[in-house]
Design goal:
Barwin-like endoglucanases, six-stranded mixed sheet, flat
């Protein structure tokens, strides 16, 4: 190139080079800037915090709020000069932490997780000083940030001006952003462990065979009575009982009447705001979203926030106490599978016969075979889920995870204990759309795949 060379032989940066491209003036320095009063760290879960709080590592906070601390130190006459104040902060004297606690009162911080895809990817929190070096994030705001704790990092920013602080507190605080701005559904939702715990606590079980439910069919005057009876071990958590409760009628009025429910549901309803009435349902991720929406309408934001924090704790505690685990035996392979597969194989042979006799075209043959196998797939999956749902009265661990919406899907369970089903053909890069191989994989992960099946299933 004919660029002007320096004595070393390297090309000098021209004026256009200074402006151009990702490293140029525009993109590097004007559109994206590094800012002061900011930091970033790995996030860990902070389940014992309130919804509007986050845990901020002490050392990070001291660095972020250094100017505020220095000013306070001088104001209080602890030091004379800025230089000596800085030294004090760097030594991390105990007086520094006292002042830091004071500064943080009423001074929210902003947390942001890249990529910032919607406005809920930046929210304001009230910091709590913690030991360690990781930021603690409240488990219910994870879905808004799309964060998980496998090593995600988040950035912290300190709003400085009074207007910015006010805006952060009134508009951006996590507890004010319960609804998703895209569609108005609650986004601050229990997930995974919490859902599983709440599902488990609200599930009922009848006395069957040698498994006796203590206190089944008993009638109680109030929720308090039920809780006392449960704590004393008179009734089981999953027992069906009758209890007087305030139920919300269709017209919105709240009426006190005798209902049939389970002990666990009564415990759950202790946290439900009075305005909403008794929630008598099996709690899944889907139903929880509706319940939270209703409570928001009926009881307002502050009570909803309190409710969310309460069920978070309840969910985690129940999931822990319930000790849910699953065994390879929880994946039951349906007995009808072999018969269904054999019947399908006969049908497929007939289709091939018709093709060889020239009665149908190649395309028709292909489509018919795919149809036959798809039907088998659906039938096996339906049977599998049905058998799982009746196993242990619906207390099959895998089924509970699936049904509550905590983790896993029908597709995954099908591949574990049903059959893996039809696979896509490997396609040459560039060509769009994939064809289906007409021979499905009839094994599942429990029985194991043959080498050929394993090879075919690698085109994912």
């Amino acid at each position: 190139s004919n660029a002007v060379k320096a004595e070393g032989g390297r090309a000098l940066k021209s004026l256009s080079d200074v402006l151009k491209g990702k490293q140029g003036r525009f993109r590097q320095n004007l559109l994206g800037k590094r800012v002061d009063y900011s930091g970033r760290s790995v996030i860990v879960v902070g389940p014992e915090m309130k919804l509007h709080e986050c845990g901020l590592p002490k050392d990070m906070a001291a660095e972020l709020f250094k100017p505020f601390i220095i000013r306070k130190l001088i104001e209080r006459g602890i030091v004379k000069t800025v230089k000596s104040a800085k030294k004090l902060v760097e030594k991390k004297e105990s007086v520094v932490w006292d002042i830091l606690e004071n500064v943080l009162k009423g001074h929210p911080i902003l947390l942001n997780r890249a990529p910032t895809l919607h406005r809920l990817s930046i929210q304001a929190f009230q910091p709590r000083l913690i030991e360690g070096k990781a930021i603690q994030l409240h488990p219910l705001v994870c879905s808004a940030f799309n964060a998980d704790f496998d090593g995600d990092q988040m950035a912290v920013h300190v709003p400085l001006s009074h207007a910015a602080i006010l805006e952060a507190q009134l508009l951006m605080l996590a507890s004010h952003n319960i609804l998703n701005p895209q569609n108005g559904t609650p986004i601050t939702l229990p997930s995974q462990d919490m859902v599983l715990g709440l599902y488990y606590i609200s599930k009922g079980k009848k006395t069957m065979g040698d498994e006796v439910m203590k206190g089944e069919g008993m009638a109680f005057y109030s929720a308090e009575e039920v809780v006392i009876a449960h704590n004393e071990g008179r009734v089981d958590l999953h027992a069906w009982i009758r209890v007087k409760a305030d139920v919300r009628e269709k017209d919105g009025s709240i009426v006190r009447k005798l209902i049939e429910t389970t002990v666990g549901r009564v415990i759950f309803n202790q946290f439900v705001p009075k305005e909403n009435g008794f929630v008598n349902a099996l709690l899944t991720k889907k139903s929880l979203r509706e319940i939270i929406g209703d409570i928001l309408k009926n009881a307002g934001i502050p009570k909803t926030v309190q409710f969310l924090d309460d069920i978070k704790t309840l969910g985690f505690r129940t999931a822990f106490r319930g000790g849910l685990s699953f065994n390879i035996k929880d994946l039951t392979i349906p007995e009808v599978k072999e018969q269904l597969v054999a019947n399908a194989q006969v049908e497929v042979d007939e289709v091939w016969e018709n093709y060889n006799m020239g009665l149908i075209t190649n395309n028709e043959r292909y489509n018919q075979i795919i149809d036959i196998w798809s039907r088998v797939d659906t039938r096996v999956t339906e049977t599998l889920i049905r058998e799982m749902a009746t196993d242990k009265q619906g207390f099959n661990s895998v089924y509970m995870m699936l049904d509550s919406g905590a983790r896993g899907s029908k597709q995954q369970v099908k591949q574990l204990a049903g059959l893996r089903g039809l696979m896509a053909k490997p396609r040459r890069s560039g060509s769009s759309g994939s064809e289906i191989i007409e021979n499905p994989i009839l094994s599942n992960f429990k029985t194991g795949l043959s080498v050929l099946e394993y090879f075919i299933s690698t085109h994912g």
